[in-house]
Each structure stands twice: as C-alpha cells, then as structure tokens.
Amino acid sequence: MAAKAFSEKLSSEGKNATVAITPRSIDVLRKYIPDAYAYDRADAVWGHINESGLEYVDLRKALTERANAGEQVYFKTDHHWTSLGAGYAFSALAPAL
User: Fold this and answer.
1) Are 85 and 63 in contact (CB under 8 A)?
2) What is residue 74's three-state secondary structure?
C-alpha cells in the first residue's frame, strides 16, 4: 500500500506522519441505505487497509455516531462532507496531530 510505504519512508527519516482515510458516505450512512445493498466490496476496502498494517486515524466512528444521531454530515445529493461533518472529522483527527 502506497500510504504505508510513504509513512514508513518519512519515519525512517525521523519525520512523523499522521494518516486519516476519509470514509465514504456508504461507510458512514449505513442506517440510511437500503438493506438490499451489498457491503462486501465496501467492507473489503477497509479490510485491506486494516490488513496492511498502516496506522491511521479512523474517522468512521465519529462521523457514524453523529449521522446516526440525525446530523447531516454528508450532503444529501453528494458524497462530500458538510461543514458540520468536516468539523467532526477534524475533532477526531486533531488529537493525533
């Protein structure tokens, strides 16, 4: 995985790297997606990331909690975060920075 190789290269040079992988709306909004949706491929992506050994800040939990509480963290007709969603992602990422 390129992100892991990049992180290891920086580490070998004595530089710190913090990685955050942006979750897609389908990773966060499962509560709102029809039961018929097959998550095999979506889950496989995160499985591959986890198996790579890459250390990263997982933003899915923070965004999922807020989305499940009824807050709009993604635009309804888009896959981008709203300002609110970006704020929650930053709040989850900030301690690692």
Assistant:
1) yes
2) strand
CB atoms within 10 A of CB 82: 15
Strand runs (DSSP E) across the chain, as ranges? 20-21, 57-58
And the tokens for 92? 């989850």
Q: What angle do CA 67, 42, 71 make, to 5 degrees?
A: 5
* pLDDT 10s digits, 6-61: 888 888 999 888 889 899 998 999 888 888 888 888 888 888 888 888 888 999 99
CA 13 to chain centroid, in Å, comes to: 27
The C-alpha angle with vertex 75 and arms to 69 and 77, in degrees rounded to 5, equals 125
